[in-house]
Amino acid sequence: MGKQFGTAGRSMFIKISQFLWILVVITASCSGTAPKLNQSYLPLNYVKSSISWGIQIKNESNLNVAPINLDKKRNQQLEEHWRRGYFDSIFKKRHPVVNVKGSDISNLDVYLNDVLTIYYVQVAFSKGQTNESLRQFVAKHIKCEPLSNLEIRFLMNADSLSPFSQIPLSMLMISAHELMLQIGAVPEYPKVISPYLRKRYGLSALKNLEDGNIFAVKRRSEPTPNRQSGFVVCRREH
């Protein structure tokens, strides 16, 4: 009798353990902890209708603006993704011999939460307009001065021995894409990745990480394309 009870008890214990393990697996899979930026390359663009726009100016320029880093809980989750190494493969494509350090991640967290506001912008602009006129137009409606890549690098390296290091800017642009996916934007990925095949089929070269900033370089007189989409980075107003 005791032997049968012992066998039944062990069987029940095993079943309970299996049930609890299933619960752990289900909870982990539903926790949403994994990043949505899970490719080794970045989206080219995002589907306009999938974005909740904060500003929409419907005129000849059709300006659409969405701030993307104002949710501190989402930013905190992003920091955890960096600490777990989820974005290392994308980062290594730009910085193959550099490792992301804990201090880099802490620095990114400060700038995402307290110093910078990142906007995703889509705008259709008249042919022949200059980059400077586009910058002024966007600045007028988002009420801040867009920063160039050089300005962002200098700002984010304020406490660094390398005042113009590219690392914080690269991390910021990767983070911007992850935040876009977190807010539900539908990505448009390149169909051809190989530089050789893109050149062979007459496709433009894929941009570097840092080119995600629409105003990466302040070329005042350079004509702007008819349509621009990408990120705009500003100092946050307190």
SSE arrangement:
Layout: H1 2-30, E1 45-46, E2 55-57, E3 63-67, H2 72-83, H3 88-94, H4 102-115, E4 116-124, H5 131-142, H6 149-156, H7 167-182, E5 187-188, H8 195-200, E6 227-235
Antiparallel strand pairs: 1-5, 2-3, 3-4, 4-6
Helix pairs in contact: 2-4, 4-7
Entry summary:
By secondary structure, the chain is of the alpha+beta class. It contains 8 helices and 6 strands.
Measured distance between first and last alpha carbons: 75 Å
| Net shape | globular
Task: Determine the fraction of residues in helical runs and give it as a percent range.
Answer: 40-55%
Determine Rg (CA atoms, Å): 23 Å
The main pleated sheet reads as: 4 strands, antiparallel
Number of helices: 8
Mean pLDDT: 84
Write up what this structure looks like.
- This protein is α+β, with helices and mostly antiparallel strands and 238 residues long.
- It folds into two domains: 1-31; 35-235, no CATH class.
- 44% of the residues lie in helices and 13% in strands.
- It has helices spanning 2-30, 72-83, 88-94, 102-115, 131-142, 149-156, 167-182, 195-200; strands at residues 45-46, 55-57, 63-67, 116-124, 187-188, 227-235.
- The strands form two sheets. Strands 2-3-4-6 form a four-stranded antiparallel β-sheet, with helices on both faces.
